[in-house]
Amino acid sequence: MKSSSILVNVARGPVVNSDDLYDALKSGQIFGAGLDVLTGEPNVKTDHPLLHLDNSDYDTRNKMAELCVRNAIQGANGEQLLAEVKV
């Protein structure tokens, strides 16, 4: 994979070798990963290396929560939404 690649796994945790993924992310071999699942779920240990990378999902979740609140405020004020899903 290119160093700009983002691996996405929405299948099963064991499809991706977590140790190899950690090494690839840590070394910059790939840019990122979007994971819906991890090997061992639902009992993933809190010391799992992927959960302690500098760019782990805590920042992403916080940004998503902030965007959600800002969208709700914009909508309540009758203003254009910052992120709108059109159906």
From TrEMBL:
Residues 1-55 form the D-isomer specific 2-hydroxyacid dehydrogenase NAD-binding domain. GO terms for molecular function: glyoxylate reductase (NADPH) activity; hydroxypyruvate reductase [NAD(P)H] activity; NAD binding. Keywords: Oxidoreductase. It holds the Pfam family 2-Hacid_dh_C. GO terms for cellular component: cytosol. The keyword Phosphoprotein does not apply. It comes from the Eukaryota. Transmembrane segments: none annotated. InterPro entries: D-isomer_2-hydroxyacid_DH (IPR050223), D-isomer_DH_CS (IPR029753), D-isomer_DH_NAD-bd (IPR006140), NAD(P)-bd_dom_sf (IPR036291). PANTHER family: 2-HYDROXYACID DEHYDROGENASE-RELATED, GLYOXYLATE REDUCTASE_HYDROXYPYRUVATE REDUCTASE. This is D-isomer specific 2-hydroxyacid dehydrogenase NAD-binding domain-containing protein.
